[in-house]
Write a structure and sequence with these properties.
About 35% of the residues lie in helices and about 30% in strands. It is an alpha+beta fold. The chain has 2 domains: about 260 residues, L-amino peptidase D-ALA esterase/amidase (4-Layer Sandwich); about 120 residues, ArgJ beta chain, C-terminal domain (Ubiquitin-like (UB roll)). The mean pLDDT is about 90.
Length: about 400
């Protein structure tokens, strides 16, 4: 995929030897002017130093630079970790000639290991010198940890006769769960927007994407999704409630959903991407709870890996989710193959056809409760031998 340039944004990557030398593990995103911004962060009560520093800055509404490192989470590192986050931020601000409050910092990697300040700061001159509009892919590659491929997505929208770009970058493969986990995401747009539009727009887009995926049920300490809008496209600022606001919201939702699917597809050791569709619930909220229960069930996910159309595990996960169900009304499908009708099997022949569906790398599971109009979706992966291997020796 060709990554477009986004007016007024530049990117760079460098080898800081944060964990080990030999690959780019530091990255920088810079807007030529202060950008309006918003953020969504982990709900884990153990919060990494970069988030402690960055959250209040993003809440203030403007950001011009984001300094990122992989290989070390700078989490559970105490006051020393906070000093690393603050010092590297100040060093970058001085190098760029901007106010320190306009810098956000982000880290991903191993928890509990001190982040070497001299290495992070040592990469800053190279990062600043290498800034270029076409280097977004280098950033996507530098922020990877156990990812097997880099993740980017983009859309173009027309606003008042001006072409505006929406570019998103993310990393994530394991420790992925609702409320985000061990993932970082950055959305850059050259569209001009009124500041109050960004937070609700981003929150909804994250709820429908990164908060609707699961790989392994873990929630990390460093999760961060930021959106920066610098207005370099020169359009009349997009107002809340306008048609242009809908266009921008749809573009952001689409790029984040693209990235969310990539993250699940890249789940550590994963071989399958599975969409869970839950319909017929009493409300959308109950539908999402039930869909999450199916998507996070280890028994369901291992059945996906074994290509076993074991619908009993699915109906059990719906039953213990806590939402209202009538077991005599539940229908279950693998793609378009119905294996359960009104709570009962449709027979061995249908299960055999469904087993063929499970052999595909991507498929859909639909559960219809037949109680109301509530519906929701989730994306999940299978749980494989390789997941255990990858995470058993992650620190080594």
């Amino acid at each position: 995929m060709t990554i477009p340039t986004v007016q007024g944004f530049k990117f760079s990557a460098a080898d800081g030897a944060i964990k080990a030398p030999g690959r780019n593990d530091c990255a920088l995103i810079v807007s030529e002017t202060p950008a309006h911004c918003a953020g969504v962060f982990t709900r884990n009560k153990v919060i990494a130093a970069p988030l402690i520093v960055s959250k209040p800055r993003i809440a203030a509404g403007q950001c011009q630079a984001v300094l990122i490192n992989s290989g070390n989470a700078n989490a559970c590192t105490g006051e020393a970790g906070l000093e690393v986050a603050r010092n590297s931020s100040a060093t970058l601000a001085a190098a760029l000639g901007i106010d320190d409050s306009l810098v956000a910092v982000a880290s991903t990697g191993v928890i509990g290991v001190p982040l070497p300040l001299e290495r992070l700061n040592g990469a800053i001159p190279t990062l600043c010198q290498g800034l270029a509009a076409e280097n977004a892919t280098a950033v996507a590659e530098a922020i990877m940890t156990t990812d097997s491929f880099s993740k980017t997505s983009c859309r173009t929208i027309e606003v008042g006769g001006k072409s505006c770009q929406v570019l998103a970058i993310a990393k994530g493969a394991g420790m992925i769960h609702p409320n985000m986990a061990t993932m970082l995401g950055f959305v850059m747009t050259d569209a001009a927007v009124v500041p109050e539009l960004l937070q609700p727009l981003l929150t909804k887009a994250v709820d429908d994407s990164f908060n609707s995926i699961t790989v392994d049920g873990d929630t990390s300490t460093n999760d961060m999704v930021l959106v920066l809008a610098n207005g370099a496209a020169g359009n009349t600022p997009i107002e809340s409630g306008s048609r242009d606001a809908d266009l921008l919201a749809r573009a952001v939702e689409e790029v984040l959903l693209d990235l969310a699917k990539m993250i699940v597809r890249d789940g550590e050791g994963a071989t399958k991407l599975v969409q869970i569709e839950l319909c017929g619930a009493n409300s959308d909220v109950e539908a999402k709870i039930a869909a999450r229960s199916v998507a996070t069930s280890s028994l369901v996910k291992t059945a996906f890996f074994g290509e076993d159309a074991n619908w009993g595990r699915i109906i059990a996960a719906v039953g213990y989710s806590g939402v209202d169900v009538d077991p005599n009304k539940i229908d279950i499908f693998f793609d378009d193959v119905q294996v359960v009708s009104q709570g009962l099997t449709t027979g061995a022949q249908q299960e055999a056809v469904a087993t063929e569906v499970l052999k595909k790398p991507e498929f859909r599971v639909t559960v219809d409760l037949h109680l109301g109009q509530g519906r929701a979706h989730y994306y999940t992966s299978d749980l494989t031998y390789d997941y255990v291997k990858i995470n058993a020796d992650y620190r080594t």
